[in-house]
Amino acid sequence: MPTYEYECHLCQHRFERRQRFDEEPVAMCPQCQGKARRVIHSIPVIFKGSGFYSTDSRKDPNSKPAKDKEKKPEEEKK
Question: Is 5:14 a contact under the CB 8 Å cutoff?
Answer without folding.
Answer: yes
